[in-house]
Each structure stands twice: as C-alpha cells, then as structure tokens.
From TrEMBL, chain A:
Pfam families: ABC2_membrane. InterPro entries: ABC2_TM (IPR013525), ABC2_TM_bact-type (IPR047817). This is Transport permease protein. It comes from Subtercola vilae. One of its GO terms (biological process) is lipopolysaccharide transport. Keywords: Cell inner membrane, Cell membrane, Membrane, Transmembrane, Transmembrane helix, Transport. GO terms for molecular function: ABC-type transporter activity. The chain crosses the membrane at residues 64-89, 95-124, 145-166, 172-193, 205-224, 285-304. It is found in: Cell inner membrane; Cell membrane.
From TrEMBL, chain B:
GO terms for molecular function: ABC-type transporter activity; ATP binding; ATP hydrolysis activity. SMART domains: AAA (SM00382). Residues 11-249 form the ABC transporter domain. InterPro entries: AAA+_ATPase (IPR003593), ABC_transporter-like_ATP-bd (IPR003439), ABC_transpr_TagH-like (IPR015860), Bact_Polysacc_Export_ATP-bd (IPR050683), P-loop_NTPase (IPR027417). This is ABC transporter ATP-binding protein. Gene3D superfamilies: P-loop containing nucleotide triphosphate hydrolases. It comes from the Bacteria. It comes from Subtercola vilae.
Length: 314, 249
C-alpha cells in the first residue's frame, strides 16, 4: 500500500512546473493572462472588497451611513450656496436632481482614482507576505467605490421618484453607458497610478489636488448650456472640453436621469431652453469607451512591468 | 530522511541573482534637487548571486547564514513575492509561506476574518475554510480572541494564528522564516511536532532558523548562505560547521 508521502510524490510528479512570473509572455498575451489570473481569484476579490468596506467603517458607530452623509452634505452646500445664494438654480430646472446626479457619478470616479492610487501602498502588509495578482488591490478599491455609488444611486432614484420626475425614455440607456465609461477610465488610472505611487509617494497627494481641479472641468455644478454660451464664439473649445471622457459621461448621465434638462422649463418669469446636448453623443461615447480600453491595456502593461519590485520598494 | 528514493523535484532554482537598488531619496523635491546626479546617488548590491539548487519532494531544508546573508530574500524569491533580476525559479504544488513576522494579516479585521482572507489567498474556497476553521482555531489556542481585531494581538498570538492557517491549507511546500522563535515553549513544541508530521506526510519544508539545535533536529539538508552566495549545501551536521566557519569571513 502506498504511503501518504508516496501518493503526494506521485501527484507532484504529474504537475507541470510553474516558472516565476517575469518569464511570462509580453504584451497582448500577457494582458490576457493577467485578466485570467485575476478572474481565477474572483472569490478573493470579493473578500477584499468586503474587507475594504468593513475596515473603513469598522470602528465608527454609524458605519455605512457615513458613505451617504458626505454626498448629502455636498449636495446641501452646492444647493444652498451655488443654487440659491449664487442663483444658479434660477437657470437650471430641478437643480437638486441635476447636482446630485453629477455628484454621484463624480463620486464614483474620484473614489476609484483616489482610493485606487493608494491601494498598493496601503496593502503593503499583504504584498510583502504573499503572492497574488496585485491588480486585485486597485480593483478591490473600485469594487468598494461601486458599492458606495450604488447606495447613492438608490437615494438619487428615490429623490427623482419623489419629485415626480421619473425619466422613462430611451435616454435612460445613456446611464449605463456613462457608468461604463467612468469605470473604464477610473480603473485605468487607478491601476497606473497605484503602481507609480509605490515609487513616488507624492503621486497620491498630486492626485488629490488634480481631482479638486478636475471637478470643475466637468459640468457637475454648472450646466452644459452655460459652457455652450461661454464658448459661443469658439466652438473648438467645446470639442476640447468634450475630450475629457468624464465630462462626456457626465452629460450622458444627466441626459438619462435629469428629465427636466431636456425640456423647456419656466422658473418664475424665466423661460429656460433645454440643454443643447452635443451632437453624435452615442458615437462620442463609443469612442470614449474604446479609447479608455486602450488606455486600460497600456496601464496594465506598465503595472505588470513595475509590480515585480513592489514587495521590496514598499 | 527523504523517505523516497526517486522523489520528484518540486523546486528548481537556476542561477538566481537579486540586486537591490537603494535609492536614498524618495520625495519629489529630493528627486528634483538630485536630478541628474541621481544615477550616482543610488547604491546597489547583490543580495543573491548565482544561487542554484534543486529540492526533492519530502525534503526538509535548513537555510542558514549570518544576518543579512540573503535568507529572507531567497525565501521571497521562492514564494514569488519578489522577482529575481536574473535566473529562474520553477516550482510545483501548493505553497504556503510564513515570512518573517506578521503574515498577511489586516490589522483592522478580526482573527476570524483574517483566517478567511488568508485561506482565500492561499487558494481555499469559502466552504473548505469553513471545514478547517475550527481546527485552525484549536491549533492556535486563541479561541477567546478570534473575534478581536488582530492589531490587539500579541506577537505570539499573531504567529500562532499564522502558523495554524499555513499548516491547515494542505501545502505541498511550506516556507518558514524564523517565525517560530516568538512562540512560547509549549507552542514551539507543538509546531515542531506538526513539522515532523508534515515530514512524514512527504511535504517539503524550507526552514530559516538561527537555532542550530532546531536545524539539526529537523533538517535533512542544510544550505549555508554568505553574502548572497551558497557556500555549503549538504548534510545537517556538516552544515552547522560550515555556518560557524562562514561567520569568520
Ligand atoms: N527591500 C529591500 N531593499 C533593499 N535592500 C534590501 C531589501 N530587502 C533586503 N535587503 C538587503 O538584502 C540583504 C539580505 O537581506 P535578508 O533579509 O535576505 O537577510 P537575512 O539573511 O534574512 O538576514 P536575517 O538573518 O537578519 O533575517 C540585506 O543586506 C538587506 O539589507
Ligand atoms: Mg531574514
């Protein structure tokens, strides 16, 4: 009868050798291999997302409520100060829905990038001790950002229903398109920046500042019509503005959820024209998605190149 | 006591070299200030140089050497945690690693949550972990603290849990880097027994230790590292002598 040791030896003799990672294939093959490796670790990814959500609110009494309080306070600030005090709401119908939908989508994007960027460094403990596909960490940050986004989405949809603005039309299809674009670009930047941040810690602070600036480069608290009016004389400025995939996604998102933006409205004595949505929006969205996938591919390749030294640099 | 005559090779290390580049500056300001000079500003040195060996299934190898000789680096290369600059590492079978202190735990999560996280990393499904969970806790003897965040654990409790997980995921290869030293006497005893049990089951163990007694007791084979070079590879008793000798250089 074979002993346990013999059985094990026999099984091991059948297994192929796995070479260390840097001998693996390059470029497209390498990208596909990485995606497969991540996919085979999906159970772990799920666990890491839960861990991220849990550890974030672990010692707080209100827990998940905090993920709602922040955007609601933001909404309040923009509603009161920009909407009412500065008077933006007079030119923007259903200002609350408009601002909150913008904040919700922006929240997804900025959270993916901000928490993704620091994800490798904050998980140093794991990275130094065990091997796993390291892309999993920015992806786990993305997962927890998606979770927060979904909670905000529920609040947003509830508010839209309460205000009797439910936008049943084909425009609703713009919403998933917008989310997909934000996810692709967000993940691409998160993957790239998380790797660079290991070598240059300033990146994570730089990203915070950049996100503050970029917030104003998309139509979140001001409406698209305002941009169109401002750039009336130079239509190429609009094209540049729309090169930012997040601005484009923002418009698509608003077009889907903010019904009042596509209608003629009367506020007080003002008649407000519908938003002059950019022409060929669907083509532009398709391009933004494809360009995003290319950037994501490049980002993953750079990540793969850099990750070999993560454990010793952190 | 490699029990089998023609045991298969499970680890093959060929000509592995690892160079560390030590950059002294890390912030943007320092980089800019030192720009251009920065090539000269970095020191590099070889933590491993042309290391080659093979390990047959069922062997217990002691990896010894002076502080800074490259033992932990070699284990990390074996575990795939860092990549060598040169050479290849090939291996087969499931690998579990206990590298230096503090396995891959997340300080804010409880012991229980970390058990699930770690088992998932080592390739167990949730269901398998459910099955092993009680015996992991029993082995570690920290039942009372299993729902406490691990940041409140003592270093011994940490190692108990990490060791318990590593030995319950059914590894073919186990890497152990000095972690046993912080356990108390009964626990060390228990670990030694577990390791002996593992040997009988034909698992491969690579053990880094500064305790000559432990190495002599457990290992079939000893590899001595000195400044990143393998200076001895052979039987345990001779290995200890070679180690003593390597200190003189
Ligand atoms: N991430 C790193 N960056 C730069 N140098 C490193 C890094 N890790 C290890 N080294 C260097 O490599 C050399 C070998 O280190 P290693 O940790 O492998 O030694 P060791 O043999 O395990 O020593 P000890 O007995 O003290 O544990 C040391 O000189 C160390 O300074
Ligand atoms: Mg060491």
């Amino acid at each position: 009868m074979a002993t346990q040791a013999e059985v094990r030896a026999e099984r091991l003799a059948q297994l192929p050798f796995e070479a260390s990672a840097n001998a693996g294939p390059k470029s497209v093959g390498g990208f596909i291999a990485s995606v497969q490796e991540i996919f085979s670790h999906r159970e772990l990814l799920d666990l890491l997302i839960r861990r991220e959500l849990k550890s974030r609110y672990k010692d707080s009494t209100l827990g998940f409520v905090w993920s709602l309080i922040k955007p609601l306070v933001q909404l309040l600030i923009y509603y009161v100060f920009i909407g009412t005090v500065l008077g933006a709401a007079r030119g923007v119908p259903q200002f609350a829905i408009f601002v909150f939908s913008g904040l919700t989508l922006w929240g997804l994007y900025s959270e993916i990038i901000a928490s993704g960027t620091s994800s490798i460094v904050t998980n140093a403990g794991l990275i130094k001790k065990v091997y796993l596909p390291r892309e999993i960490f920015p992806l786990a940050s993305t997962g927890s950002a998606i979770f927060n986004f979904l909670i905000q989405m529920i609040v947003l949809l509830a508010a839209i229903l309460l205000l009797g603005q439910f936008p049943i039309s084909l425009n609703l299809l713009y919403v998933p398109a917008a989310v997909v674009i934000v996810l692709i670009w967000g993940v691409a930047f998160a993957v790239l920046l998380s790797a660079l941040n290991v070598y240059l810690r300033d990146i994570q602070y730089l990203v915070e500042v950049a996100m503050l600036l970029l917030f104003w480069a998309s139509p979140i608290v001001y409406s698209w019509n305002l941009v169109v009016d401002a750039a009336k004389a130079h239509s190429w400025l609009l094209e540049i503005y729309l090169l930012n995939p997040v601005s484009l996604a923002m418009l698509a998102f608003q077009r889907g959820l903010w019904q009042a933006g596509s209608q003629v409205n009367v506020i007080g004595t003002n008649t407000i024209q519908p938003q002059q949505w950019p022409a060929y929006m669907d083509v532009r969205l398709a391009f933004a998605a494809i360009a995003g996938l290319v950037v994501l591919f490049i980002a993953q390749r750079i990540f793969a190149r850099l990750q070999g030294n993560f454990a010793q640099e952190i | 006591m490699p029990a089998l005559r023609n045991a298969p090779t499970v680890v093959r290390v060929t000509d592995v070299s690892k160079r560390f580049v030590i950059r002294k500056e890390k912030s943007l300001k320092e980089r800019i200030v030192n720009f251009g000079r920065s090539q000269k500003h970095k020191d590099d040195f070889w933590a491993l140089r042309n290391v080659s060996f093979e390990i047959k299934a069922g062997t217990t190898i002691g990896l010894v050497g002076a502080n800074g000789s490259g033992k932990s680096t070699l284990l990390k290369v074996l575990g795939g945690i860092i990549q060598p600059n040169d050479g290849t590492v090939e291996r087969r079978g499931r690998l579990a690693a206990l590298l230096e202190l503090g396995a891959g735990f997340h300080p804010d999560l409880t012991g229980r949550e970390n058990v699930y996280l770690n088992s998932a990393i080592l390739g167990l499904t949730r269901k398998q972990t459910d099955e092993y969970f009680q015996s992991i806790v029993d082995f570690s003897e920290i039942e009372e603290f299993i729902d406490t965040q691990v940041k409140f654990y003592s270093s011994g409790m940490y190692v108990r849990l990490a060791f318990a997980i590593a030995v319950h995921v059914d590894p073919d290869i186990l890497l152990v880097d000095e972690v046993l030293a912080v356990g108390d006497e009964p626990f060390q005893e228990k670990c030694m027994n577990k390791i002996k049990e593992f040997q009988a089951e034909g698992r491969t163990i690579i053990l880094v230790s500064h305790s000559a007694g432990q190495v002599e007791e457990l290992c079939d084979r000893v590899v001595v590292l000195s400044h990143g070079n393998v200076v001895f590879d052979g039987g345990a008793a001779d290995g200890i002598l070679a180690l003593r000798e390597s200190f003189e250089h």
